[in-house]
Every structure is written in C-alpha cells, then in structure tokens.
Amino acid sequence: MSEETAAAPGSGELAVRARGLRRDFADAPVLRDVSFALPRGSTLVVLGPNGAGKSTLLRIVATLLRASAGELEVLGARVPKDAWRARGRIGYLAHSPLLYRDLTVAEALDFHARLHGVADPGARRGELLRAVGMEGRDGQLVRTLSAGQLQRLAVCRCLVHDPELLLLDEPAAHLDPHALATVAPLLGPASDRTRIVVTHDVEGGLAEADRALVLSADGRPAYEGPADGISAEEARAVYAGAPG
User: Fold this and answer.
1) Considering all CA atoms of the chain, what is the largest pairwise distance in Å, rounded to the nearest integer?
2) Rounded to an integer, what distance in angstroms lies between the CA atom of residue 117 and that of residue 136?
3) How far apart are CA 225 and CA 109, in angstroms?
4) Which tens digits make up the pLDDT trace of 177-218?
5) C-beta pairs of 184-193 under 8 Å, 24+ apart in sequence
6) 3-class secondary structure, 37
7) What does pTM read for this prediction?
C-alpha cells in the first residue's frame, strides 16, 4: 500500500512519516524499505517474527538509533537532523526498564521527571504510582522490585512527562491480568495518545490498532495498511519459518 493511501483524507496531521527506512548492522540489513504514515491520535501495531526488526524500528522512531537509509519525520521534526525537537515529546517503553537500579522508586522517577522539566516531580510521581497500584513504594530500591513491579515502574517513567507519542515494545511483558488492567487505561487506546505498539499478541494488537505494519523475517514490510484489512491468520503467515 502506498504512503499516500496510508495518509487517508480526513485522517489529520501526521505524527510519524517514514519513507524507505533501512537499518544495517555490520553491513547486514535488519530493516528494509519500511514506509508508513501514522496520523496523530492513531495506533499502529507492528507485528512480525523474532528478528524482523520490530524493536529496531521503535528505537529509530524514538531517535535513539539512526537509520542507515531513508527519511523519517516524528512529530513534525526531521530525524535525525532535528531529533531534539521530538525527543522530549516521546514516551518509550523498551524491553529494558531504563531505570537506575540502585535508586529508590522515588529517586528514579524524579530523576526522569527533572530531565523533562516536569514542574512538580513529586506530585506527578504520586499520581502515576497510584495509577499503577504501586503507592507506598517510593522508598523501595528499584533492584528489589519484581519483574511485574519493574514493568509498572517503567510505565510510570514512560509517562512521567505526559508524552504525545507512545512507543511501546511488548507493554504487557511480565504483567499478570490485574497489573495489566491497571496500566491499560494509561497505555491503551483510551489514553488518546498516538501509539506505535510492538507485540506478539496478534489478535489483541490488531483489535486495538487503526493501522498495521507486518514485517517478514528479513525485515521487509509484508503488509502496511488498515488494521482491519488483514486477519490474524494472514498476519501470522509471515511467521512461518521464523527463528525461535
């Protein structure tokens, strides 16, 4: 599907526009010719087998990794040239929590809040910890948290500066059903934020998305278009023969 088709009439201003993105590691391509256009307020789900470059794509959009080729605009900023204009408006939830493990919960969140110029870090911290069911843990060391608690704290870090664009890499990782229910209003479609979500939950990802990007095992787009334009079975077809 062409980029012009992706930016359908009436879809509003674009939050992300990618044209022909490629990323090589040690001269081996991981992503190849990835293009998409994501209107503000919409959700793009990124699906594909392990090693297809899904997390690499998120890191490129997060301005943490440069594409080897192609063009990228994020929140109106050309990346990497003007990445500084977008970086503070992005919330990135990665596989790693991106938190200093020897700080307390309060210190870790306040550190990120101050980096982003949050006016009242303590108030914002309290609001977020209550929202994810971790109130009262301000003084606990990050390294003592369980995997599920660490994921919830990473959600707080991702949201501490009230970002416009959420980049979510397996946001349900390590979360039991109760914990997942606490973070869903913050990260899900009800948040009204623009979102790019990488997930192996094909049915759930497609159900919550406006658009879908399905990558094949060699990092090429196998499908890019409306989320309701591809079934879960069709999306899974690209997983055939994927590495474990």
Assistant:
1) 51
2) 24
3) 37
4) 999 999 999 999 988 899 999 999 999 999 999 999 999 999
5) 185/131, 186/128, 186/131, 186/132, 186/155, 186/159, 187/93, 187/155, 187/158, 187/159, 189/43, 191/166, 192/41, 193/41, 193/91, 193/163, 193/164, 193/165, 193/166
6) strand
7) 0.92
